[in-house]
């Protein structure tokens, strides 16, 4: 699947650790989210994940079937082997994950994303031609990930986004009630975990994350 910055509009990230290890719940939420307008999905098994490699593979295959059904780009977090095995659409890595240079060599013709947190990291990313997009954050404090860096706020998001030569998605503590303020920076989209997982009305949540209503 070819990358377009519009795919970053509402970028949903989730793994079994975000739903109390309830894989069936994860699959149902991802299907509901795909059905109701998310524009990209990242499968991320980290932090307190208890899945074995075999279980992770089976979940990844099921999630691929769902995302393909709704034509939602499917990204794997920091696992080149898994991405290749299921032929996902792309891969995302953080600053402390697999080196971006290796990802670019091993993942040709895939969507490639990189997390950034500082001005220097954004400027370094600008020199990586094969990078498709960057993540910028955390914008606000978040409980969805362990070892989170300090929140940077909307003003710093705006500064980093203006510096970036790549499309960028914001991440970290973004919810229905603050997404519109985040989008005033003209960043290409918002990335969320808990706001969709905990939603009682996923369609309404996704609509608001797009800056509507």
Explain what this protein looks like in three dimensions:
Belongs to the thiamine-phosphate synthase family. It comes from Apilactobacillus kunkeei. Condenses 4-methyl-5-(beta-hydroxyethyl)thiazole monophosphate (THZ-P) and 2-methyl-4-amino-5-hydroxymethyl pyrimidine pyrophosphate (HMP-PP) to form thiamine monophosphate (TMP). Its cofactor is Mg(2+). Pathway: Cofactor biosynthesis; thiamine diphosphate biosynthesis; thiamine phosphate from 4-amino-2-methyl-5-diphosphomethylpyrimidine and 4-methyl-5-(2-phosphoethyl)-thiazole: step 1/1. This protein is α/β, with parallel strands linked by helices. It has a single domain, classed as Aldolase class I (TIM Barrel), CATH 3.20.20.70. Helix content is 38%, strand content 16%. It has nine helices and eight strands. Helix 6 (153-163) links the parallel strand 6 (133-136) and strand 7 (168-171). Helix 1 (23-35) runs parallel beside helix 2. The longest helix is centred in the N-terminal third of the chain and has 17 residues, at 53-69. It is globular and about 40 Å long.
Intertermini distance: 31 Å
The CATH superfamily is known as Aldolase class I
Number of domains: 1
**CATH architecture identity:** Alpha-Beta Barrel
- The low-pLDDT segments are none
Q: Which CATH top level class fits? A: Alpha Beta
What is the H/E order?
Answer: EHEHEHEHEHEHEHEHH
Radius of gyration: 16 Å
Strand content: 15-25%
Helix content: 25-40%
What is the mean pLDDT?
96
Kindly report the oligomeric state of this protein.
Answer: single chain
Which structural class do you get from the secondary structure elements?
alpha/beta
EC number: 2.5.1.3
Keywords: Magnesium, Metal-binding, Thiamine biosynthesis, Transferase
Cofactor: Mg(2+)
Binding site for 2-[(2R,5Z)-2-carboxy-4-methylthiazol-5(2H)-ylidene]ethyl phosphate: 142-144, 173, 193-194
